[in-house]
Specification:
The protein is α/β, with parallel strands linked by helices. The chain contains 14 helices and 17 strands. It is about 40% helix and about 20% strand. The structure holds pyridoxal-5'-phosphate.
């Protein structure tokens, strides 16, 4: 099929919720993807942070082949060989004690909110049911997750959502202190806002989150679906802050592109979800869990946290030096391989022009270029991306000047 045929079918038959870039990707290998005609693109977005091990990693391909021939799905009616092993791994890595597996990040957020509600009722009765969240955050598109997503543009069409949700401005410590009270069952936040433009919670904000939830016996939920599992150069973003949540939510890269999410909770909370009170058909299947174990083995054996930290720091420096020379750049933000460049102009046209240069970038929040490359990325790939960015910024500047002159 040609690109036009593929696009025409989607235009005709899909509910038109996606504003796709004009590219059909046929396959990928390492840090590159290839389109229908075999044209190669350097991938700086990696399926929105899912393909942290790049595309078609030989060990991931091998383990999927082997496990697919044994069992893909068995259901949670039975034990499988891999769910407990993976749960143990997640507990050891996070310092938390009990895991529930889902099929996506959003579903893991839903489960975490349900656990926090149930625990809140145990601790403080029916009234202890409110949730505090952060303006500009993103936690998913189901009713619960959407209710705690701090962006009105995503919520408006679907009202009424969950009641009792209060949003506080990012890094407004006083507002956070004010918002959490005895009727709060949960405070949910991303240590680094992803979809919200790569904006970090300050250490003071995280510390107040911990203190306020302890003061009022509420559950602190960290959504590390985008920033966790190695992206910042640490296994979890919270590990740099010294603030530990009561529930940690992960997903995106966990099973190398096979859908898998999880929330990991403190031991004392886990009893609030007794037998029969939560569940899923697909979550925690043997294929997904085995691939996730391979994900962690590869990260460790290939030294990918170190690579993410080193190349991430280099990328950050290069972006900053580019920013100093361009009046179109407002700010460079982020940590490790979770980086952003905020522009003074819309970012999407640059992302589309970059396609013509053989590079995949992404835009979020209108003016923000977002970079979530694979952990395999090297300095030479960064250099290539920076060269393209420099060229596009120069051209955008020229276009702005000639528009002003006319
Ligand atoms: C992607 C994302 C989600 C939603 O995860 P899905 O797997 O798309 O359901 C939630 N929170 C954050 C921070 C995310 O980046």
């Amino acid at each position: 099929m040609t690109f036009e045929e593929i696009a025409a079918l989607e235009r005709r038959y899909l509910i038109p919720v996606y504003n796709r870039y004009p590219l059909a990707i046929a396959r990928g290998k390492g840090v590159f993807v290839y389109d229908q005609e075999g044209r190669r693109y350097l991938d700086f977005i990696t399926g929105i942070g899912v393909n942290a091990l790049g595309h078609a990693h030989p060990r991931i391909v091998k383990v999927i082949r082997e496990q697919a021939a044994r069992a893909i799905h068995l259901s949670n009616l039975y034990y499988n060989e891999y769910q407990g092993v993976l749960a143990k791994k997640l507990c050891e890595l996070s310092g938390l004690q009990r895991v529930f597996f889902s099929n996506s990040g959003t579903e893991a957020i839903e489960g975490a909110l349900k656990l926090a509600r149930a625990a809140g009722h145990q601790r403080g009765g029916e009234a202890k049911s409110k949730v505090v969240a952060v303006e500009g955050s993103f936690h998913g598109r189901t009713f619960g997750a959407l209710s705690v997503t701090g962006q009105q543009k995503y919520r408006d069409l679907f009202q009424p959502l969950l009641t009792g949700v209060t949003f506080v401005a990012l890094n407004d410590v006083a507002a956070l202190r004010q918002a959490v009270d005895d009727s709060t069952c949960a405070l949910v936040m991303e240590p680094i806002l992803g979809e919200g433009g790569i904006r970090e919670c300050s250490p003071e904000f995280l510390q107040e989150a911990r203190a306020a939830t302890e003061r009022h016996r509420a559950v602190l939920i960290f959504d590390e679906i985008q920033c966790g599992l190695g992206r910042t150069g640490k296994m979890f973003a919270f590990q740099e802050s010294g603030v530990t949540p009561d529930i940690l939510v992960v997903a995106k890269p966990l099973a190398g592109g096979i859908p898998l999410g999880a929330f990991i909770a403190r031991e004392d909370l886990s009893a609030a979800l007794p037998s029969g009170q939560h569940g899923t058909t697909f979550g925690g299947g043997p294929l997904a869990c085995r691939v996730a174990l391979e994900y962690f083995a590869i990260i460790e054996e290939e030294g990918l946290l170190q690579n993410a930290a080193r190349v991430g720091a280099y990328f950050n420096e290069q972006l900053k030096s580019l920013a100093e020379k361009s009046s179109l750049v407002r700010q460079v933000r982020g940590r490790g391989l979770m980086l952003a460049m905020e522009l003074t102009i819309p970012a999407r046209p640059l992302v589309e022009q970059a396609l013509g240069e053989g590079v995949l970038f992404n835009s979020t929040h209108d003016t923000v270029l977002r970079f979530l490359p694979s952990f395999l990325i090297q300095e030479k790939h960064v250099d290539r991306g920076i060269r393209v960015l420099r060229k596009l910024l120069r051209e955008a500047k020229k276009a702005a000047k000639s528009a002003a002159a006319n």
